[in-house]
Amino acid sequence: MPKEKASENAAIRLSLYLRYLREMREEARISSEQLAESLGTSGARIRKDLSYFGQFGTPSKGYRVGKLREGISKALGLDRVWPIALVGVGKLGRVLLNNLAFEKSRFHIQVGFDVNPNRIGRRIAGVKIYHPYQMPKIIRKQKIHIGMITAPSEAAQESADLLVISGIKGILNFSPARVVVPSYVKLKNVDFTSQLEVITCYIVNNQRFHLSPGN
Amino acid sequence: MEKKVLLVDDEVDFVEVNKVALENKGYKVVAAYDEKEALEKALKEKPDVIILDVILKRKTGGFNVSRELRKYEEIRNTPIIMLTAIRERMDIKEKIKPDKEWLPVTEFLEKPVSPAELIEKVAEVLQRRK
Predict the structure, then answer these.
(1) CB pair distance less than 8 Å for A182 and B94
(2) Closest CA–CA distance from residue B16 to any residue of chain A (Å)
(3) Are residues B90 and A137, on separate chains, in Cβ contact within 8 Å?
(4) Which parts of chain A have pLDDT scores under 50?
């Protein structure tokens, strides 16, 4: 068990380690230096991250891939299935529903909420859709801790408020609107436009040739 | 000097009863019945205390008003007493707590609230501000 609260950066690095380890054979061994080289970081950083979450082997002898994978999965909370509540079953919501509505998935959309009367009461990709005002009861009953917001910008904050009062512990917000949540709820924003702007900024400032507007 | 109270609730009867009760205790009471009116009157009247119900036009309308109020320098520090029946109406088990960013209110009062309780809370909040 970690001694104190894990930092977000450490969680991101653990996720990267795990992604790399998944491509390796379970019985193989890997040293922190080998892992570091593959991921462009330092062995010391990796040893520090791993020791923070527990004992995964002896750094001098290298780690057994299977055991390390298992340990990191546990540290990331991936040793269980996480049911998710989706708010907003429009175009983006449906894409997510079609990809994350499988019970075998570790992250599994279990219930949807939408204000559109044509969607309420229906099943979309096998997932039952309810009115957002039913959130507290449904979320508590189904023991859901993660919410995803794919509602339009103007409904994003109300969606977040309803998720929070329903007892949700973490929110992934796909809406471009900035939402506010209490300090005890983890919020991650996935703003496609803002990410594309980072890319266009990089392109226009690093091109050796000039891009004319409209190209 | 008489203290000014802004009372925000979409339940007309609740507003009327409590307005009279507060006025009888010497407060000047301004009423608002929705989110927009609440913001407008808060900025115009600059009350000493705001009593704000959670459920307005939207179920969490009061949450939004409390955040909006904090955006204006002149009313940023005005104490807000939040009234709520949302836990009962929406079958919420967990207690809703004030939060600096998410729910910047001073106090919570669970409805039903009697005029006497409301008067006591207003006096308490104003006393603390002195």
Answers:
(1) no
(2) 28
(3) yes
(4) 1-3
In chain B the domains, ranked by start, together with CATH numbers, are: 4-129 (3.40.50.2300)
- Closest by CA to B7, choosing from B34, B26, B24, is B34
Domain ranges of chain A: 8-75, 82-194
Q: What fold does the segment set A82-194 form as a domain?
A: Rossmann fold (3.40.50)
Q: How far is the CA of A74 from the CAs of A8, A39, A106, in angstroms? A: 16, 21, 12
8 Å CB contact between A43 and A31: yes
Which residues from A are below 8 Å from B97, CB to CB? 182
Are A110 and A86 contacting, i.e. CB atoms less than 8 angstroms apart?
Answer: no
Helix (DSSP H) and strand (DSSP E) numbers for chain A: 8, 9
Contact criterion met (CB < 8 Å) for B59 and A182: no
Q: How confident is the model at residue B91 (pLDDT cuts 50, 70, 90)?
A: confident
Instruction: Choose, out of A134, A139, A180, the residue to mutate when testing the contact with B (most B CBs < 10 Å).
Output: A180
In angstroms, the Cα distances linking A180 to A189, B42, B96, B101 are 11, 22, 15, 7
Closest CA to A6 of A76, A78, A74, A56: A76
Beta sheet of B80-84, edge-to-edge order: B28-32, B4-8, B49-53, B80-84, B107-110
Q: How far apart are the first and last CA of chain B?
A: 13
State the pTM of this model: 0.86
- Which member of A136, A162, A180 has the closest CB to residue B91? A136
What CATH number labels A8-75?
1.10.10.10
Which ranges of A108-179 does DSSP label H, i.e. alpha helix?
135-141, 153-165
